[in-house]
Amino acid sequence: MDAEPSPERFRELMLDEEPAFADVLSCVFGIQRHESTTYLALLDNPGSTVTELAEVVDRDRSNVNRSLATLREKELAERRRRLLDGGGHVYQYTATPLPDAKRLLHETLDEWAAYVHERIDEFGDAMEG
Q1: Contact, 22 vs 33, CB < 8 A?
Q2: Which InterPro entries does its entry note (predicted)?
Q3: 81-102 pLDDT per residue, tens
Q4: What is the CATH number of the domain that holds 51?
């Protein structure tokens, strides 16, 4: 996972006394607020199709489809294909369980902090030689 928290968003998050979980998701994973909202809606509606989820979040299907693609890239959602009785198939989406998402948040933030610490430690090395 190659998410890097946005420094601007991180600052906003630190200044907010009580940031919403969706804001934390957006900041740490570098995703849009509507994608965080889609994740939270999916938590409450596991096994949803794009059409069903579009109704829940009140967005058009193409936007929801893009949000789901991003969530899958960030390992926050998974997709399963279900065969229909009359033929054909439909995709159903389920959010990564909250404890797993929290673990991913911690891991991503820890990786980013380690990266920043390395940059701090390297500062000035080129000037000393």
Answers
A1: yes
A2: ArsR-like_HTH, Tscrpt_reg_TrmB_N, WH-like_DNA-bd_sf, WH_DNA-bd_sf
A3: 999 888 899 999 999 999 999 9
A4: 1.10.10.10
Cβ contact 26:36 at 8 Å: yes
**Is 1 a domain residue?**
no
Assess if residue 2 is contained within a domain: no
pLDDT, average across residues 27-38: 91
**Nearest-5° Cα angle at 78, 77 to 81:** 145
| Pair of tokens at residue 20 | 């919403």
Separation CA 3–CA 118 (nearest Å) = 17
Helices (H), the chain: 7-15, 21-29, 33-44, 50-57, 61-73, 98-122, 125-128
Instruction: Give the pLDDT confidence score for residue 100 in this predicted structure.
Output: 96
Q: Which domain holds residue 66?
A: 7-128
Q: What length is written for the chain?
A: 129
CA dihedral 3, 9, 13, 19 (to 10 degrees): -80
Let me know if residue 25 belongs to a domain.
yes
The domain tally of the chain equals: 1
